[in-house]
Amino acid sequence: MTEEKSQNRKMVTIEQIASPIRCPVTQRTALVGLGLNKIHRRKILQDTPAIRGMIAKVQHLVCIVDKN
After folding, report:
1. Which has fewest Cβ within 10 Å: 7, 16, 19, 51?
2. With contact defined as beta carbons under 8 Å apart, do 20 and 29 qualify?
3. What does the alpha-carbon distance between residue 4 and residue 15 come to, in Å, rounded to a whole number?
4. For the chain, first and last CA: distance in Å?
5. Which of the 8 DSSP states describes residue 11?
6. Torsion sign over Cα 50, 40, 29, 59
7. pLDDT tens, position by position, 15-50
């Protein structure tokens, strides 16, 4: 049953569209936590409340490309 749950999880693709220069340290650490560190890099992550919170913190630096 756990395999079925893991296959049904929603994923979100995010892309970094701006540089974190002159941003607070908390926003830089949120980008690192999302696995982003350079502009135009994309990451596919699970759509969880923790990930959504990090995206909300750096919403001016990232763009949601695809939401499954």
Report:
1. 7
2. no
3. 28
4. 21
5. E
6. negative
7. 999 999 999 999 999 999 999 999 999 999 999 999
Residue 24 corresponds to which amino acid?
P
Measured distance CA(68)–CA(64) in Å, rounded: 11
Q: How many Å separate Cα 55 from the centre of its chain? A: 5
Q: In the beta sheet, which residues pair with residue 14? A: 43, 64
Band (pLDDT 50/70/90 cuts) for residue 5 is low
Torsion-angle region of residue 35: left (phi > 0), alpha (psi -120 to 50) or beta?
left
